[in-house]
UniProtKB/TrEMBL annotation, chain A:
Protein name: Cobalt ABC transporter permease
Organism, scientific name: Kitasatospora cheerisanensis KCTC 2395
Keyword presence, Repressor: no
Keyword Repeat found: no
Pfam families in UniProt: CbiQ
Membrane disposition: Multi-pass membrane protein
Automatic annotation (TrEMBL), chain B:
Protein known as: Cobalt ABC transporter ATP-binding protein
Keyword Cell membrane (UniProt): yes
Role of this protein: Probably part of an ABC transporter complex. Responsible for energy coupling to the transport system.
Source species of the chain: Kitasatospora cheerisanensis KCTC 2395
SMART domains (alphabetical): AAA
Membrane topology of this protein: Peripheral membrane protein
Keyword Cell membrane attributed: yes
Places the protein is found: Cell membrane
Key words, A-Z: ATP-binding, Cell membrane, Membrane, Nucleotide-binding, Repeat, Translocase, Transport
MF-aspect GO terms: ATP binding; ATP hydrolysis activity; ATPase-coupled transmembrane transporter activity
Sequence ranges assigned to domain ABC transporter in this UniProt record: 2-243, 290-518
Signal peptide from the UniProt entry: none
Amino acid sequence: MSVDRLRRTAAEPANSGAVHSRSLSRQVHPGAWWLWSLGLAAAASRTGNPLLLLLILAVAGFVVAARRGDAPWARSYAAFLRLGLLVLAARVVFAVVLGSPVGGTHVLFTLPQLPLPAWAQGVRLGGSVTLEGVLFALYEGLRLAVLLACVGAANALASPSRLLRSLPGALYEAGVAAVVAMTFAPNLVADVRRLRAARRLRGRTDRGVRAVLSVGLPVLEGALERSVALAAAMDTRGFGRTAEVPRRLVRTGGALTLAGLLGVCAATYGLLTAGTHPWALPVLAAGAAALGAGLALGSRRTVRTRYRPDPWALPEWLTALSGVLVGAALIWYAGRWPEALTPPVVPPAAPRLPLLPALAVLIGLLPAFATPEPPRSTR
Amino acid sequence: MITFEQVGVRYADASEPALRGVDLTVPEGELCLLVGPSGAGKSTLLGTVSGLVPHFTGGVLEGRVTVAGRDTRTHRPRELADVVGTVGQDPAGHFVTDTVEEELAYGMESLGLPPAVMRRRVEETLDLLGLAELRGRALSALSGGQRQRVAIGSVLTVHPKVLVLDEPTSALDPGAAEEVLAVLQRLVHDLGTTVLLSEHRLERVVQYADQVLLLPGPGEPPVLGDPAELMARSPVRPPVVDLGRLAGWDPLPLTVRDARRRAAALRERLPAPPDPPAPAAAPPAATAIATASRLVVARGPVPALRGVELALFPGEITALMGRNGAGKSTLLGSLVGLHAPASGTVRVNGLVPHKSRPKDLIRSVGLVPQDPRDLLYAETVAEECAAADRDADAEPGTCRGLLATLLAGIDDERHPRDLSEGQRLTLALAVVLAARPPLLLLDEPTRGLDYAAKARLVDILRTLAADGHTVLLATHDVELAAELAHRTAVLAEGEIVADGPTPDVVLASPTFAPQTAKILPPYLTVADVAKALTPQDQP
């Protein structure tokens, strides 16, 4: 094993200059795309201003249109947009039917109110619908929709399975499990469809909830058989081969990883919730360090090497940085002038576009120009 | 290379051992073919070589199997991964990643090979298997033959000394099967890989085998030896061997070429047939039971059928052939209303399939899908039959009676999933027939069937046709089509490119011609030759 290790470090690719070029088409590191989209999502989470939200949506859409490949998952942006619209619509419908927590004086119309028994006090069905309530729901829904669109953008630009492929060795097995789970969902849907169709062949109807439920058992049986077959195939292909490592090292690695993860989670919560938490940044740094050390220790167990790893070069730095900048700028701005990022709904007023945050959001456009084009298969 | 020492395998819930008394050595660099009827333990034997038996499947392994000097009792499958490459029956179940190139590299990554080596081997393997064009493709977008080649390639990149394949060509059309076998041939020649494979369709592979490992049946000890010698004793035989036995040739021919050279004398003994001997005269064309005219069906963005014209007549057996993805299953699906036509019309027994109620439709047309398990939901055979009677509003006991006539000896209390492939197919057939549909469709019925089960299926379908049923079967099995079908239609790219009496269609094409037709045209099957040889009373 030690000889292998030596050779592995000796045989690093020598053509490292080419990866910085943006004219040579290649895949950008999935991590860069996810960092960029998470930056945009963090920015969106800090604002309720519909103009800013729409601007973020436009920026994400522009980059996706410019830099997505032609793989099947590249079409997922549209699906996420539709999902976002659905969420938005649902949010507004709920606000209309169930009423809204923000009071208001501008009554748009009044729905007949359903009298509810005494134990359901506090729940209201129907009644008057105010402009303020609808606006509030609209902004809230829009924020959720834009968050979804950011995730969709990352999905379209780099499939999650590619991201998981570049996980550190210690997390690799968990990553494979996640990838397998993700491919199983579409297979399951295909199975349900096929078996529902097969019901027709038995002279039973293929419509309705009962038709779906009745194929549940066969579908599960099929999925189970398939996972067993896949597990067997993976085993015969050497999945899970490990190097001999002292037990103490493994335990220390595990403990460090866990502590690091907890620290990072707590710090992220502190950073993203309203109010200032001075402890958040140091905890984030300490957590990240512990996590890194734990993963490095854990990786010593794996013998795995990586085939053509995605390089992390100038375009990746620019992409990730642009996303982080957008997020950081809006978080900072929201701390300073919160009222500019959350337009008042009581009383309703036309939202205004704050100049500085808008310019910051535009930084998110950078990847559309700074990254190389993805390779497209010539068919 | 592979040594078996007194190997026996017994699974926990089985009364009989799955394998017993295997004591032999497979030498290095040979292509060794496993031959035997269903249930003889072929898959179990293959599993012992890759270490899946017993580490993964459970059960008790007696004796010792060593591969390249490693004992499978002490080495788990993952520790054998660098010497044994295993490809199962369904290549899709073998894939872990989502593109061709990543899949080829996956095994090497697990073994921790240096990146430079991986890069070189992926390129070599892409060339060796002719996959260079497909390197960036998503695995889900490949055809059956391409998938099988990628699956083989994905285990080849680690340079295993032994390659284990379970039915590598069963799901493939004749052309794709040739492709895969040519690759195996090249591996044995160029790389000296030891290949161990099992296959039901012997007519495709027996000519490539250096050695045959015969598993005569459950409980009997296996024998390893020369293919021609063992074929003389084997209970399962390809048509070319049957023809050799009929003509009394010794040693038996294994390839069409051998047989053709020997056949001169036999050809003289055969009466010159005035017209090609059809399996049976096609019945006179009455009114069609089902018609498709200018049928266009789209599945996703691409049309799967483009303007198909087809009419099916009572009492006629039609074989539908064509490569994987040509639209055969879609055509069958349209006839039972699973796919609505984009344009054109389908009529079955006066009904429009996709608009009819399922309850009415099953009295007109029945389909046995590619995987008969799709049709079976119940816990036991008896419940399944009772449910079929209720679905069809038939007398209670109808389905069970049909099943008993089709195949005796299926236990009422067994779970449909535990039946053998042949039994399960028969059960699905009985379920479909309970509604007495005049039109019967079968999708790839002989996949995974051994010769005995296939012969039973042929008898059943002939009887049904004689009773006036119309049968349409989609199949890759040229021998089945030649033996059974009155008429053959060939689909390509969603269009019917040939349609006519089976002898005319299969004799015109080397891909679809059965072995006998290549040796003694215009005879299609060994049975035809045998009939022509027996002196008949002239009327």
